[in-house]
Amino acid sequence: MPVKKNGKKNADDLYRMVFEEARDSMLVLELPQQGTPRILDANPAALALHGFGRRKLAGKPVSVLGASLSRGRFRPGSSDVFEVKHDRPGGRPLVTEVTARNVRSRSGHFGILIERDVTWRRRLEEEARELSSRLLQEREEEKKGLAAGIHDSVGAMQVGLSAELLLLEDCVRRGDEKMALAGLRRARKLLKASAAGLKKACVEAWPASLAVSGLGAALSGLLTSFTKRSRIAAEVSLSLPDADVPESPATIVLYRLAQEALANAERHSGAGLVKFSAGTEGGWLTLEIQDDGRGFDTVKAAANGNSLGLKIMEDAANSAGGHLSVYSAPGRGTRVRAQLPMNCGRGTAR
């Protein structure tokens, strides 16, 4: 008999050691026939997770942890896994993944809870869902803008050409050769302007020069359009290889980063000068765009959710295996720097 007692004591000591040293939160609950389960014991990991002392938990209803955990969660002889959101003082979030086990002994029914903090995982998943939704909205806005540009160009061309053709028809009937020739010149000019508008919309959607002439030519065209449109001067330094790899995701991603950074400078910076450089360092494509505009508080912008465009740019750089940094402060301009690996793979970047 003493051997059995010693054996039971050793087993109890082992179980207690496992309970005390476990890294996951462990709670032992009493499960009454009616009412809320009550806490019998909690290991140090549980006390640290919930911020309680052991004496403050013992004998308390499980609701003291800020969770609604009913007797129905513990089905006889069952083991269940579920998530619990805890309402904590001060509104600090806590989400735990709980494995609940129902056990029965001569003295009654008990529940064993093993908890794991998954707050960070849920927060990342929520941020990913929110970003995905906002990215979808941004893409839809881009499509809407492209459709509006094409619609306006086609509409203007249709109205203008219809009017000119009517006048031309009238001149032909009257035999007025001079007026007819003038009408043809106006129609030709209108057609040229409309075609230029359509071409501009298509280039913004996909730069054909990138595949035909390479990244350097595409960036030069982008900068030419930027300076004409914005009236912002540009100091340009391009040191890109003659033979670009248009199929590489790095080239189109770098082009899109430049396109977005210049658009931001035009819309928000109030700058008079932009310094633009693109080149190669080792096996990396580099891009740096710096303006002398009003700048902004990067920390405050991120906290207020006003940096979606920068977040999209950062994600685009990351998707190509690179990284993007933004440096800015109120009154001190903005500098955007990106580095992308030239051998990041083949395929179409989106």
Question: What attributes characterize this protein structure?
Answer:
10 helices, Heat Shock Protein 90, 3 domains, Beta-Lactamase, 5-stranded mixed beta sheet, 5-stranded antiparallel beta sheet, alpha+beta, elongated, 350 residues
Topology:
Blueprint: H1 2-21, E1 25-30, E2 38-42, H2 44-50, H3 54-57, E3 79-86, E4 94-105, E5 108-117, H4 119-174, H5 177-205, H6 208-212, H7 215-230, E6 233-239, H8 249-269, E7 273-281, E8 284-291, H9 298-303, H10 308-319, E9 323-328, E10 334-341
Helix pairs in contact: 4-5, 7-8, 8-10
Task: Please explain how this structure is put together.
The chain has 350 residues and is α+β, with helices and mostly antiparallel strands. The protein has 3 domains: 2-117, PAS domain (Beta-Lactamase, 2-Layer Sandwich); 119-205; 207-350, Histidine kinase-like ATPase, C-terminal domain (Heat Shock Protein 90, 2-Layer Sandwich). The chain has helices at residues 2-21, 44-50, 54-57, 119-174, 177-205, 208-212, 215-230, 249-269, 298-303, 308-319; strands at 25-30, 38-42, 79-86, 94-105, 108-117, 233-239, 273-281, 284-291, 323-328, 334-341. The chain has a 5-stranded antiparallel β-sheet. Strands 6-7-8-10-9 form a 5-stranded mixed β-sheet, with helices on one face. A hairpin with a 7-residue loop joins strand 1 and strand 2 (38-42). Helix 7 (215-230) packs parallel to helix 8 (249-269). The radius of gyration is 34 Å and the shape is elongated.
